[in-house]
Amino acid sequence: MPHDDQDRHSLDCGNKSVDQLAELAGLIKRHTGRDGMFGTSVPSLHLICSSKTTLPVNTVYEPAIVIVAQGTKVVMLGGDNFTYGPSSHFVVSIDLPVTSRLIQASPEAPYLCMRLGLDPAQVLEVMKGAEAKDGREAKRGAFVDRTSPELLDAAVRLVRLLDTPYDIPHLAPLVIREIYYRIIRGRQGEAFTQFALAGSGTSRIARVIARIKQDYAQPLHIDELARMAHMGPSSLHRYFKEVTAMSPLQYLKRIRLQEARRLLLAESLDAADAAYRVGYESPSHFSREYAKLFGLPPISDIRRLREETVQEID
User: Fold this and answer.
1) How far apart are alpha carbons 25 and 228 in whole angstroms?
2) For 3-195, CATH number?
3) pTM above 0.85, yes or no
4) How far is CA 238 from CA 82, 95, 139, 221, in A?
């Protein structure tokens, strides 16, 4: 293709993406109307709006594709930082305890994104039809990639279906398959499909994670988790860290502390009760680890969170 034609093609693609982002932002803003995360008539689709930047928030991300129309977010996983905005999308293929922060959002230009939950069976089906690589090595359970015009177009069409609910049962599954297909055919396609492949390193780590999340308050032994993953203890440690950017013990600690924080907020427990509920035998050890993760001891942290909530309401 001559240089002039290449330049015109690039310009056309750029203009198309700008128009698609503007339409996607308008659709999300219209279907949310205020700050928050909102379910939709498409069961796996949520829309998110936030009109202000945030301090770091600790949470567990479940498998999903996040496509941003406006604003910027950074997610911290272990020592990795993932920054994504309108030119990129974020994919989580496994449950991961992360720290996230909105770094670009305002009342005039709120953070607007769509979150599409992942269906492993459907991803596997699309993967086979797309003749994607069948890699088995464990991959990081999160990545950022560039949002192509084709992927953005599919995202716009999916959210646009919310205006015609009678079309959703017939067309939404097709558009979701296309979104999966676009990501599978992208640069991170092999990492994306790992979680859906039975026997892959990532899927075996997913089974271990499910056990940790289910029995986080019970004593868990590495040998037992390794047997569940059909690995030796050293292999489990290596694969687990490759997928989650942390060791099994560090992952367990994050899950316990985040659940303790939720209990302290929701049930007004004292620190010792919360510690025992999530599996700590020593309240003092719990308080030290809590302060290391959240920046303040339990009671001070919960007081701060409640004050911030009251200020937001006021």
Assistant:
1) 44
2) 2.60.120.280
3) yes
4) 22, 18, 11, 16
CA-CA-CA-CA torsion sign (118, 258, 188, 137): negative
- Specify the CATH architecture of the domain 257-314: Orthogonal Bundle (1.10)
When computed from its CA atoms, the radius of gyration of the chain, rounded to whole angstroms, is 21
Query: How far does Cα 51 stand from its chain's mean position?
Result: 20
178 closest CA partner among 200, 163, 156: 156
Rounded Cα distance, 255 and 293, in Å: 11
Hey, what are 66's tokens? 């996040």
pLDDT digit string, tens, across residues 34-57: 999 999 999 999 999 999 999 888
In this predicted model, what pLDDT tens digit does every residue of 109-167 receive, in sequence order? 999 999 999 998 888 888 876 665 555 566 788 999 999 999 999 999 999 999 999 99
Residue 66, beta-bridge partner list: 90, 115
